[in-house]
């Protein structure tokens, strides 16, 4: 079959499917793209030729920013439990390098996305082409090489013959639950348009089985032995529980053996908040209940977690515990010198079933009691009369029943992790692997595309909004309805607090005019974010107190259009942090307050463990 490389690629992608537990779905649901000279005549022509509307074999979606396209693909793929994703096509040069942040986010969160940046001519006949980086040391270096470290598979298609094997490798990595992440096929612009005689079988329907590996018997026996000897076990549920759709198994396991369950950011919602042994969020942004249990546990059962520093409180949290690590990736299962159980989370929980073993009744009772106290703490935090951030989140939490909350960076992820009452695994979508400002709206768009039946509540800080608000226009274009809660506190509340706590005096964290002193200490910036959102095509409502926020959210929910609710919050603390985070403080300073902070830092440092 004689087709261009781009036509063959599009035809191939439309024939790829995944299968898990007997259900089949498209692997590549569509192609997000921004065209330039590096892809318009290749991929652009190929998409147009097959009819690029939503009923096409590979539907095309115009986005506003290439980084945002990857966020949208990630939001989509995560919501679909990594079984379906999007491709992203870009031009060469800046269009391609705009992908880098999105690719890093995808790879760190282990979410499949297919990136198709254009690349400079393979033939080099016209070099240097517009936007080409000329590396005097080597002509085969292009700006796309910046995607190598953030991609789980990277290839450059310099000749048509290379395409089939590259495509198969790319699909294998996308659908491998242990390996997956950003997959990049760099496509030189001349090669995209080049014709070749392809074998028919390249375009046959292919179904990629998404594996649920079972534990190795010997490893399972060791894990069961460890479990049976434990009296004070504590589960740390990570994103892997959700990816594997293991939530119900986990809830049943915890209830049957009376094991408290704590959750990471990616794992939050793995068990419903009112499960009898749900001890809530763990780590630096965790609940007092979970963190107290973590300090007293004799065995930590990590399931599908990467053990980020937020989870382990920078390795200070699990004072005397051994680790049993259930993970599909050996890389993660090996962390903290744990007993490795390399397997799919659901398979592992079934296999691990320890019969009549239970946690010590006193331990289970303590977990219940601590959790009850923590629920009362949430009630208090949600219950104020002023529109502080916790009060605002309580109101959104109530409005979002059955909906999804999306967030990524700033002070909200911490408060959400502590406070949000998640009732199902899909309800809580906080991107905290890369915690990327700008993920919120673009990622939320992907969530809504994947779950159109659910109300999607995007919580976005003013800082994140100013960094990447433009995908509101894409949501409007697609008739995709989002409720965007734009939380305005005139700058970086999160980094402001952190800055103060590490002796950096809140430098550069407030959105103020440069004042007469030459410092950024003048009046608040006269930026009208509500008007900005309206200009992008959204309906806009404003809320100044708890009552008007409730009314605005009800209106936004009732509307069929993307609605931005602009909220100004007042400073007001949520529950205190009960676990540390290692952010190194200046070792020397003329300022006595910095020296005091440094002394406290060194005290915490002594609690840090290597887990050997
Ligand atoms: C792309 C990116 N740049 C910088 C950071 C570091 N950072 C984390 S939170 C934050 C401020 C976020 O401000 P805003 O969205 O207004 O949220 P707030 O802290 O006010 O709640 C910054 C700069 C980041 N996470 N992502
Ligand atoms: Mg802010």
TrEMBL record:
Residues 409-567 form the Thiamine pyrophosphate enzyme TPP-binding domain. CDD domains: TPP_PYR_POX_like. GO terms for biological process: inositol catabolic process; isoleucine biosynthetic process; L-valine biosynthetic process. Keywords: Hydrolase, Thiamine pyrophosphate. Residues 221-352 form the Thiamine pyrophosphate enzyme central domain. One of its GO terms (cellular component) is acetolactate synthase complex. One of its GO terms (molecular function) is magnesium ion binding. InterPro entries: DHS-like_NAD/FAD-binding_dom (IPR029035), Myo_inos_IolD (IPR030817), THDP-binding (IPR029061), Thiamin_PyroP_enz_cen_dom (IPR012000), Thiamin_PyroP_enz_TPP-bd_dom (IPR012001), TPP-bd_CS (IPR000399), TPP_enz (IPR045229), TPP_enzyme_TPP-bd (IPR011766). Residues 55-133 form the Thiamine pyrophosphate enzyme N-terminal TPP-binding domain. Belongs to the TPP enzyme family. This is 3D-(3,5/4)-trihydroxycyclohexane-1,2-dione acylhydrolase (Decyclizing). It comes from Streptosporangium canum. The lineage of its organism: Bacteria, Bacillati, Actinomycetota, Actinomycetes, Streptosporangiales.
């Amino acid at each position: 079959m004689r087709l261009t490389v781009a036509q063959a690629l599009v035809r191939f992608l439309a024939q790829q499917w995944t299968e898990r537990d007997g259900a089949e779905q498209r692997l590549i649901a569509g192609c997000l793209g921004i065209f330039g000279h590096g892809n318009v005549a290749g991929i652009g022509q190929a998409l147009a030729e097959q009819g690029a509307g939503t009923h096409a074999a590979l539907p095309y979606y115009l986005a506003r920013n290439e980084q945002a396209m990857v966020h949208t693909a990630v939001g989509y793929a995560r919501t679909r439990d990594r079984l379906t994703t999007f491709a992203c096509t870009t031009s060469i040069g800046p269009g391609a390098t705009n992908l880098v942040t999105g690719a890093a986010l995808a790879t760190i969160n282990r979410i499949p996305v297919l990136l198709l940046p254009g690349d400079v001519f393979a033939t080099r006949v016209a070099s240097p082409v517009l936007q080409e980086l000329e590396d005097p040391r080597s002509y085969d270096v292009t700006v796309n090489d910046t995607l190598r470290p953030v991609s789980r598979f990277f290839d450059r298609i310099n000749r048509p013959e290379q395409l089939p094997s590259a495509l198969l490798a790319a699909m294998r990595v996308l659908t491998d639950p242990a390996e997956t992440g950003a997959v990049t096929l760099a496509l030189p612009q001349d090669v995209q348009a080049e014709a070749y005689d392809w074998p028919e079988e390249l375009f046959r329907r292919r179904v990629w089985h998404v594996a649920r590996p079972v534990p190795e018997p010997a490893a399972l026996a060791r894990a069961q032995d460890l479990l049976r000897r434990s009296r004070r076990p504590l589960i740390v549920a990570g994103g892997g529980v959700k990816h594997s759709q293991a939530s119900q198994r986990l809830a049943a396991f915890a209830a049957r053996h009376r094991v408290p369950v704590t959750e990471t950011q990616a794992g939050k919602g793995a068990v419903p908040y009112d499960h009898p042994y749900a001890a809530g969020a763990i780590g630096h942004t965790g609940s007092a209940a979970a963190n107290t249990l973590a300090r007293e546990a004799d065995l930590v059962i990590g399931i599908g977690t990467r053990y980020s520093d937020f989870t382990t409180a920078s390795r200070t949290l699990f004072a005397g515990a051994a680790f049993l690590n259930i993970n599909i990736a050996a890389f993660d299962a090996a962390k903290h010198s744990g007993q490795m159980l390399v397997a799919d989370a659901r398979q592992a929980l079934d296999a691990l079933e320890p019969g009549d073993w239970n946690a010590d009744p006193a331990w289970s009772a303590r977990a219940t009691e601590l959790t009850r106290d923590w629920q009362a703490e949430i009630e208090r935090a949600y219950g104020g009369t002023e529109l502080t951030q916790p009060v605002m989140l309580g109101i959104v939490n109530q409005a979002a029943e059955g909906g999804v909350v999306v967030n990524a960076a700033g002070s909200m992820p911490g408060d959400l992790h502590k406070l949000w009452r998640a009732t199902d695994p899909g309800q809580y979508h906080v991107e905290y692997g890369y915690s990327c400002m700008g993920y919120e709206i673009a990622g939320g768009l992907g969530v809504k595309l994947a779950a159109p039946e659910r109300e999607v509540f995007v919580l976005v800080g003013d800082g994140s909004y100013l960094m990447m608000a433009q995908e509101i226009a894409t949501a409007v274009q697609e008739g995709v309805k989002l409720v965007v809660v734009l939380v305005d506190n005139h700058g970086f509340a999160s980094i402001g607090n952190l800055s103060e706590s590490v002796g950096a005096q809140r430098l550069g964290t407030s959105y103020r005019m440069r004042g007469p002193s030459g410092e950024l200490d003048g009046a608040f910036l006269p930026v009208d974010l509500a008007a900005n959102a309206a200009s992008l095509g959204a309906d806009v409502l404003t809320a100044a107190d708890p009552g008007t926020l409730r009314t605005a959210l009800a209106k936004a929910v009732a509307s069929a259009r993307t609605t931005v609710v602009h909220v100004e919050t007042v400073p007001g603390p949520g529950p205190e942090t009960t676990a540390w985070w290692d952010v190194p403080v200046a070792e020397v300073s003329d300022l006595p307050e910095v020296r005091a902070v440094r002394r406290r830092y060194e005290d915490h440092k002594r609690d840090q463990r290597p887990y050997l």
